[in-house]
Amino acid sequence: MNKKILIVEDEKNILFVFSRLLENKGYKVISAEDGLKGLELAQDELPDLILLDLVLPKLDGFKILNTLKDDENTKDIPVIIISARSDNESIEETLKAGAENYLVKPVDRNKLLAEVDKYI
Fold it and tell me: Where in this chain does the record put each Response regulatory domain (predicted)?
């Protein structure tokens, strides 16, 4: 069975590149371009891993992460934050809230694949 990865990312180019990269490695990829849709997909699809941007339309990544970690059905899904925000406060806040890791954009493809493999 293919492992399912949810990518929540509003930048279409990044979403496309990450999706193709992961699909080529055999993962089933589902995606959302805004926070509300991303949260709905996470709760409905229960993916094996979530790649989550922080700056999103409709609902930001911090709120999504906190909601997922407070929900009995989604609290154990690993979440990797991928964001252009590189300030220590954002990094510390998300790791404290339960994210597995925090990658700063631009993310090297090999680094991304290594992180995905680590948590799936």
Answer: 4-120
pTM: 0.97
Structure token digits, residue 35: 């926070």
Reading the block at residue 76, the tokens are 């154990």
Which helix or strand (DSSP H or E) is residue 62 part of?
helix 61-70
The conformation of residue 46, written as its DSSP 8-state character, comes to -
For the chain, 120 residues long, give each residue's pLDDT as a single digit of tens: 689 999 999 999 999 999 999 999 999 999 999 999 999 999 999 999 999 999 999 999 999 999 999 999 999 999 999 999 999 999 999 999 999 999 999 999 999 999 999 999
| Matching residue, tokens 């589902």 | 30
For residues 102 and 20, give the distance between their C-alpha atoms in angstroms, rounded to a whole number. Answer: 21
Cα separations in angstroms, 118 against 21, 71, 114: 16, 23, 6
- Enter the CATH code of domain 4-119: 3.40.50.2300
